[in-house]
């Protein structure tokens, strides 16, 4: 099970509303390489994973991604909270506002709703871990594009933290993949000494 | 950022709420990162010692925080009367978060370099 801690993993404190930024940052909430997909991917894959190290890695990174989902949600929330209707319209966020107001639901920057096909849980340890290496890199690239588009340090700082975590997760998944590959190459035959009467 | 725990006694008293929160966040992060590392390096004794030490420090700081400022953990914090868990602000609100101190000359918050 999970329990909740009433603290963000890394602080989100954004002074100035910016609906334009909110409607693109939402992609890391519920877009194809977003945190919702990442957490559900790892938490789903762990049921069929092998080796204690790789199972724990999926369990714990999947859990950390939920904390990242909360951070991204906090960013969108603070960027929209005090935005006026005029600011929302000027930022081209009227379609977002029409569907969700100042609320949040998982979708990409282009407004495409979250699709569980992005989870990619295949039941094969090598397939799943290789998928995750690519997933972490795609999320890293997305955070870099978002940083390119941002100009407020209050927004850039948490985005940089989230980007760094993708790099660390990529490293851990690489180690888990190596451990699983080594395990699969080990001989799993148990050799027993021949009893005397068979000699 | 680091808090020395000597002979079981806790840090300097009268840390304000945001300062305590900052230290707890920092320790939580070290614990998170070390635990991911230990998952794939379970025989690294040095990292394990560091992990255990951070857990002890974080527990002490959380206890201190909860004494003055309210519950942190959904299921392991005790509540005064009336039930305190519902108190605002929740972590996604602006007011709940501490400011990152940007040291002078450190432009890390203002540059786009990754």
Compact summary:
The complex is a heterodimer of chains A (199) and B (114). With 199 residues, chain A is an all-alpha fold. Chain A has helices at residues 19-25, 27-30, 35-45, 52-81, 85-90, 94-100, 125-149, 153-185.
Fold and architecture overview:
The complex is a heterodimer of chains A (199) and B (114). Chain A has 199 residues and is an all-alpha fold. Chain A has a single domain, classed as Ferritin, CATH 1.20.1260.10. Chain A is built from eight helices and no strands. In chain A, helix 3 runs antiparallel to helix 4 and helix 7 runs antiparallel to helix 8. The model of chain A has no long low-confidence stretch (mean pLDDT 96). Chain B has one domain. The two termini of chain B are 23 Å apart. Chain B is built from two helices and no strands. In chain B, helix 1 packs antiparallel against helix 2. At the A-B interface, helix 4, helix 7 and helix 8 of A face helix 1 of B.
- CATH class of chain A, named Mainly Alpha
Overall mean confidence score, pLDDT of chain B: 84
User: Got a strand count of chain B?
Assistant: 0
Q: Return the string of H and E elements of chain A.
A: HHHHHHHH
Tally of DSSP β-strands of chain A: 0
Mean pLDDT of chain A: 96
Question: Which labels suit this protein?
Answer:
heterodimer; A: mainly alpha; 62% helix; elongated; B: 114 residues; mainly alpha; 43% helix; 0% strand; disordered N terminus
Write the layout of secondary structure elements.
The complex is a heterodimer of chains A (199) and B (114).
Chain A lengths: L18 H7 L1 H4 L4 H11 L6 H30 L3 H6 L3 H7 L24 H25 L3 H33 L14
Helix pairs in contact in A: 1-4, 3-4, 3-7, 4-8, 7-8
Chain B lengths: L16 H24 L4 H25 L45
Helix pairs in contact in B: 1-2
């Amino acid at each position: 099970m999970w329990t909740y801690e009433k603290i963000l993993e890394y602080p989100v404190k954004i002074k100035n509303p910016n609906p334009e930024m909110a409607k693109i940052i939402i992609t890391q909430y519920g877009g194809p390489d977003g945190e919702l997909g990442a957490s559900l991917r790892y938490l789903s894959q762990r049921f069929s994973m092998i080796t204690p190290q790789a199972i724990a890695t999926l369990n714990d990174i999947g859990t950390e991604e939920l904390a990242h989902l909360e951070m991204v949600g906090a960013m969108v929330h603070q960027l929209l909270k005090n935005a006026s209707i005029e600011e929302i319209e000027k930022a081209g966020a009227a379609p977002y506002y029409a569907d969700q107001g100042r609320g949040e639901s998982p979708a990409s920057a282009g407004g495409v709703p979250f699709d569980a096909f992005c989870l990619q849980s295949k039941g094969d340890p090598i397939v799943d871990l290789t998928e995750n290496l690519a997933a972490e890199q795609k999320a890293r690239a997305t955070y870099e594009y978002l940083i390119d588009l941002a100009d407020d340090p209050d927004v850039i700082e948490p985005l940089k933290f989230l980007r760094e975590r993708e790099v660390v997760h990529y490293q851990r998944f690489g180690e888990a993949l190596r451990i699983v590959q080594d395990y699969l190459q080990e001989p799993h035959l148990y050799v027993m000494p021949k009893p005397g009467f068979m000699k | 950022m680091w808090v020395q725990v000597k002979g079981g006694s806790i840090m300097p008293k009268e840390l304000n709420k945001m300062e305590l929160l900052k230290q707890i966040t920092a320790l939580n992060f070290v614990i998170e990162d070390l635990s991911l590392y230990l998952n794939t390096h379970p025989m690294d004794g040095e990292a394990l010692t560091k992990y255990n030490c951070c857990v002890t420090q974080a527990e002490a700081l959380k206890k201190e925080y909860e004494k003055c400022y309210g519950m942190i953990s959904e299921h392991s914090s005790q509540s005064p009367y009336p039930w305190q868990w519902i108190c605002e602000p929740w972590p996604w609100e602006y007011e709940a978060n501490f400011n990152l101190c940007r040291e002078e000359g450190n432009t890390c918050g203002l540059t786009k370099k990754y």
